[in-house]
């Protein structure tokens, strides 16, 4: 069944390419998701008639479940020839860069082209934010705040907000000081400042003595 809702993203992961360990992980679920029944189906799913994306809570509610999913996905993709797999009823798109792998995970029936566009824009925005323009583990850890903000600007509660990499990068990049507007401090500047202070002190002394 196709996903006819805005909730298109299950998770965004950035894993170490060498061992699958987590660098950054964001999991999403609709804020009004229903708890699942013991059979695995969302409670009241049939009665409400809503798509599974709106009914089911995230299958990775605990850290243990998340780590197990990440390890399994890494095992499936580390030697994969393509850039998309279907795993455990999830559509997993990925892109490797040096020593890290970026993943976008969505429901099985999600639009693959849309998730692929999200993956590309997120990859490009993160690369633009890092100093050398390449995504590697060290650069990500040194700029973890920017990487996290880029993800948050792209997806919120599983809803894709922005897929323009330059827009995302401009929103989260640190403001750079304008060197041209900073005053130049040299010996002449200090001398002028000292003379000005000396004159003011002399004027106050004279005014006090009158």
From TrEMBL:
Keyword Membrane: yes
AP complex mu/sigma subunit domain residues: 63-173
UniProt keyword Secreted, yes or no: no
Pfam family, one: Clat_adaptor_s
A single GO cellular-component term on record: COPI vesicle coat
Domain of life: Eukaryota
Alphabetical keyword list: Cytoplasm, Cytoplasmic vesicle, ER-Golgi transport, Golgi apparatus, Membrane, Protein transport, Transport
Membrane topology category: Peripheral membrane protein
Compartment(s) where it occurs, according to its Swiss-Prot or TrEMBL record: Cytoplasm; Golgi apparatus membrane; Cytoplasmic vesicle, COPI-coated vesicle membrane
Primary location group: cytoplasm
A Gene Ontology BP annotation from the UniProt entry: intracellular protein transport
UniProt xrefs under InterPro entries: AP_mu_sigma_su (IPR022775), Coatomer_zeta (IPR039652), Longin-like_dom_sf (IPR011012)
Cited Gene3D superfamilies: 3.30.450.60
Function noted in UniProt: The coatomer is a cytosolic protein complex that binds to dilysine motifs and reversibly associates with Golgi non-clathrin-coated vesicles, which further mediate biosynthetic protein transport from the ER, via the Golgi up to the trans Golgi network. Coatomer complex is required for budding from Golgi membranes, and is essential for the retrograde Golgi-to-ER transport of dilysine-tagged proteins. The zeta subunit may be involved in regulating the coat assembly and, hence, the rate of biosynthetic protein transport due to its association-dissociation properties with the coatomer complex.
Assigned protein family: Belongs to the adaptor complexes small subunit family.
Cross-referenced PANTHER family: COATOMER SUBUNIT ZETA (PTHR11043:SF0), ZETA-COAT PROTEIN (PTHR11043)
Oligomeric and partner information: Oligomeric complex that consists of at least the alpha, beta, beta', gamma, delta, epsilon and zeta subunits.
Name the record gives this protein: Coatomer subunit zeta
